[in-house]
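Final report, closing paragraph on structural work. Over the funding period we assembled a curated collection of sequence-structure pairs, and we close with a single example.
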Amino acid sequence: MNAINKAIWLPLLATGLAGLQPVLAQQPAKPAPKTELTGANPGLSLNPDTAVTSFHDVTIKGQKVPYKAVAGTQPVWDQDGKVMAGLFYTYYERTDVKDRASRPLVISFNGGPGTPSVWMQIAYTGPRLLNIDDEGYPVQPYGIHENPQSILDIADIVYIDPANTGFSRINKDAPRDKFFGVNADIKYLAEWINTFVSRHNRWASPKYLIGESYGTTRVSGLALELQNAQWMYLNGVILVSPTDLGISRNGPVDAALSLPYYAATAWYHKALTADLQQKDLTTMLPEVEHFTIHELIPAISQGGFLDEQKRKEIASRMARYSGLSEKVILQHNLNIPPDFFWKELLRDRGYTVGRLDSRYLGQDKEDAGNNPDYNAELTSWLHAFTPAINIYLREELKFPTDLKYMMFGPVHPWDRNGDRTGENLRQAMAANPYLNVMIQSGYYDGACDYFNAKYSMWQLDPGRKLKNRLSWKGYRSGHMMYLRKDDLTTGNDDIRDFIKKSLPKAGQPAKY
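Its predicted structure, as stored:
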């Protein structure tokens, strides 16, 4: 199983401002009975159809932006109109905009599957930012402050927590196969989005999907499902740290594509030879990428029949680029598992490196072994995010509930059959000339690594017809690249530019 597939299976993945006193208004959109819920606290109940609205402002890029925040739930119904679940969402709408028809709407998901939208909501695109240091590490006191880089200046945003994540819950008697699988997830969320867009009068607005990690699988499938089943056409899809999107990369390709990520990580930890180390990261990586495509994949393809001298030459080059020894590379037959790399790279220094962000260091009980004891970066993130989101939703947005906010929810087993989400996205682009796609990757992400993301982008366009609507951006951080202050700014600026460039001119038809 490659690193990207592991990222899907493993769960992935802020202080109220003293002068802010939101005006609250209860807005039940459609009366619904309370329902018995599954999850961590099955005795608790949640009104699946309610909302609390508050009014705020934030200064973005030096401009004061007033907005309303709606924290609420909206039902998922079955074919007979029975409520099967209540999904929690937070909707931010700029209030000084008169022309809502031309105002973009961004629909945001995170991944796992099994995680809510907390990560991007209070650390990337939303108007509030959790308290962390400039590199993304936890600080105390926990809480939140203004996000001066938020995209709320140019787009309204709704953050959606899928079933059994955050405050969202399915009913006790709801069939799990309606929610927990690649295609089931896409189907019910498309219906939910249709209802949300109708309730909030956003049919005229340009629409964008953004997903992170497994959320990229979700939004890639949604692009076609919204188009085919809801007749809702998008202007853009943003893939943050994308999974493999159901695109096959078995055998030698799977074995080779991680090397550029290994090189980036080794460069960061100063584990490369002096000549490579003195180069800038983005100057050094193209050399590794070229070697990976033109030499490493062909070499691994020959297996045990590769000429012995050539085998040693390839191992020597891999050692040069990865920071590992030629000996261990040969012992692994030129195929270094990611788990082993995270354990081995800094073994002599007494550290492991993080899976989702290799800048983070861990310490194991023993230096021996083939994989780290724990994910150093994920522990760090939970340390910062969990108190921040509970403080924010309960104290600032005043959403009343005793439910546990589930950072990782009970959504397994997850049905992965029929994952064609990359092909779904390609079909949606082919049928909709307005639809553009941008990919964002962190160089130090070992779960959904940047070179695999590039590979997916290449495979999305085998016919060379979509190249002008596909783009990739790299950042000097990991899976959640926005946790690094510099990349928070650059990443949001890239999203802002992507939205502006993908908005057609008035009267410009969607045609080839």
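The chain has two domains: 3-247+382-502, 252-377. The first strand starts at residue 25 and ends at 26. We thank the funder for supporting this effort.
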